[in-house]
Amino acid sequence: MDWKQLWEILSAPDNVPIIAMIPLLAFYIYLAWKQAHANDVLIEQLAGDAALAKTHHRKAWPFKPGWAKEVHVWPFLLRIEFLAAIIVTIILMVWSITLNAPLEEPANPNLTMNPAKAPWYFLGLQEMLVYFDPWIAGVVMPTLIIFGLMVIPYIDTNPLGAGYYTWKQRKFAIGTFLFGFIILWVSMIFIGTFIRGPGWQWFWPGQTWDHNRLIYEVNRDLPDLFGITSNWGKGIFGAAVVGGFFAIGGMLVHAFFRRHNAKDFKRMSLLQYSIMMTFFLTMIGLPIKMLLRLLFHIKYVWITPWFNV
Amino acid sequence: MPEEKTPNGKNGKSAGLVERLKAGVKEDLESLKTELPAKAKEQVEILKKPTKTQVYTSIFRHKHDDTPRNRALGVLSNVFLHLHPAKINRDAVRYSYTWGMGGITFYLFIVLTLTGVMLMFYYHPSKVQAFRDVLYLEHDVPFGKLLRNMHRWAAHLMVIAVELHMFRVFLTGSYKKPREFNWNVGVILLVLTLLLSFTGYLLPDDQLGFWAVTVGTNMARATPLLGHEGPFGQQLGMTPYNDVRFGLLGGSIVDANALLRSYIWHCIGIPIIASIFMVLHFWRVRKDGGISGPAPVVLDSEVKEAKK
């Protein structure tokens, strides 16, 4: 266990925000879960009691009939905003006094930093470079993430859960988002920051960053495993595999979705449904390709003269 | 000239002048003794009620009394506060619902603008000067280190706050009807926040920023169709000297032009674009009916299916 190495990584000034994100995220997930749970309990109670459902104020918070429904923004909201501004300022002040922003040697194109890392919020995408070619990891994926986020309001036809925390009413939507945000975005940032060392090799926390380490790893392409050698064969085989993933995966998701989200399925138009399927399957494809690489050392699935997937 | 009596004195003009002066001075002294103290008293009385002064009423156009009307006017007649409604849902002020992350993001943007403008006074976006300017800022400028630290940490904090804000908005289903469009504006603002942070990364012109931006922009080489290493790029005549990466960097390597470009995007271009989208974002929050909740829970059995 190389404690010095571990400390150097953990205490690098630019890594501090990522460390700070762990407790922050944990706290807010807890806060959301607590309210979602309270609301779910209330929903269940109201669903079983029609008389109560008619009279209940429909919130998990205490409520008395005499209380005003609305409060003045001045002072009840503005004092909170004012306090928040003060607290953030204090945090920033203390942070800025105690920790200096990093400044390395002057830029030198002849001396490559190893590892050369992107800013922390892009490390998830840089980590993807291990598994995908740059045009996918660096260009297509960010584009898909942005468009994927943008279409959410238009493909989520579930009218429930608007304006309150809940889990049971929106399992699919929240599950998918948590998977994308926590597993694919945040945890990839963690791997990129704390695990990846020189040569972008995998170093466990506390393992010394050995700049001379060599890993003997033969990566194969999927067509090679099946003994396909011709370019045409590889192209067609890859297209079939990728197409097959979308077809079979699509069938599986379809079978699951129309059973467990019957109402949503009924509400969705063909366009909404196919857009959701495309983005969902593409997202699922990510960890599958990662596993193929990590477990079976497979580099490419689909090889063409112009691009490789 | 014959002597004449003047109304002011029997000893002629000069004597009359002296008399007049004496009388006048006496009057002035009398006024100093009586009228000024009276005015001072009056002034003290007025200052006891500062809200009645002309200066105050010219700035604030409503009274300061603790009445519902004035509380509402205090928000509505103030350009900085009128983004808020006069009254809101009593549960909407609960921190546990909103987490305050949108507001904190905006506050951090203001902090970054202020510290950023101050940093601009000490920074030249040129290869010769940039790194030295940062050293100068850190070692010689009073509070320069604090200024730079604050700008850096506020930027990191803003990225975190934006992501948490999006997380909360998703978990509360706040993107649902009628707020679909505002969610999209928010996604654009998220991207702009990341770009703001990314363009600032290169500006110290040190190894960290240089290689981070090199890694980042190298991906642009691989842009399908538009990059010289991307799929179908070469077939479309892309070279390192005319592809999309060249356009981003103003050259085929990260050098002086890239520094200038990222400086201008960072300090002028993206802040203006982001401000426009922020205006839109905040305005739409109000137009779409204020913040989404906390809304009363809806039961599955109460959903009315739209007829097709």
In words, what does this structure look like?
- The complex is a heterodimer of chains A (309) and B (308).
- In chain A, 62% of the residues lie in helices and 1% in strands.
- With 309 residues, chain A is mainly alpha-helical.
- In chain A, helix 7 packs antiparallel against helix 12 and helix 10 packs across helix 12 (270-296).
- The radius of gyration of chain A is 25 Å and the shape is flat.
- Among the domains of chain B are: 13-48; 98-202 and 254-290, Up-down Bundle (Cytochrome Bc1 Complex, Chain C), CATH 1.20.810.10.
- Chain B has helices at residues 12-48, 54-59, 68-76, 95-98, 101-120, 130-139, 144-171, 180-201, 207-221, 244-249, 256-287; one strand at residues 87-89.
- Chain B starts with 11 loop residues before the first helix and ends in a 21-residue tail after the last helix.
- The model of chain B has no long low-confidence stretch (mean pLDDT 90).
- Chains A and B meet through helix 2, strand 1, helix 4, helix 5 and helix 7 of A and helix 3, strand 1, helix 4, helix 5 and helix 6 of B.
- Strand 1 (70-72) of chain A pairs antiparallel with strand 1 (87-89) of chain B.
Condensed summary:
Chain A has 309 residues and is mainly alpha-helical. Chain A has 12 helices and 1 strand. Chain A starts with a helix and ends in a 13-residue tail after the last helix.
Features:
heterodimer; A: 309 residues; mainly alpha; 12 helices; 62% helix; flat; B: 308 residues; Cytochrome Bc1 Complex, Chain C; 1% strand
What is the number of E strands of chain B? 1
- The helical percent of chain B reads 55-70%
Distance linking N and C termini of chain B: 116 Å
- Poorly predicted parts of chain B: none
Total count of helical runs of at least 4 residues of chain A: 12
